Amino acid sequence: MKSATIGIRELRDGLSRHLADVRAGSELTVTDHGRPIARIVPIGAESGLEALVRAGLATLPLTPRAELPEPVEASGTVSDLVTDQRR
Q1: Quick one: which of 5, 9, 18, 67 has the most CB atoms within 10 Å?
Q2: pLDDT tens profile 26-50
Q3: Does this model's pTM top 0.70?
């Protein structure tokens, strides 16, 4: 898979051309002031997690994520609550 790094302005100015490259199998890393901020990959491309699972380096969870508990109502700041718990 061909990979390229482009800035936001370059992506905007040549969007159709860059998307055609992605459609053909290329991967684009988009940068903002030289810092990577996004990756554009073709639909159907293997994700990093999928590659790790295929390589046997990761496993997917066997059960769905448990429900989150109901939020606790409290007054004051978190720092105050922590201080009260330490007393």
Answers
A1: 18
A2: 999 999 999 999 999 998 878 888 8
A3: no
43: CATH? 3.40.1620.10
Distance from C-alpha of 32 to C-alpha of 38, rounded to nearest angstrom? 9
Structural domain includes residue 9:
yes
pLDDT digits (tens, 9 = 90+) for 47-85: 888 889 999 999 999 999 999 999 888 788 888 888 888
How far, in Å, CA of 38 to CA of 35, rounded? 9
Instruction: Establish if 81 belongs to a structural domain.
Output: no
Q: What angle do CA 44, 50, 51 make, to 5 degrees?
A: 105
What is the per-residue pLDDT for 1? 67
DSSP state of 76: S
**Per-residue tokens: 12:** 């905007």
* 29: three-class secondary structure by DSSP: strand
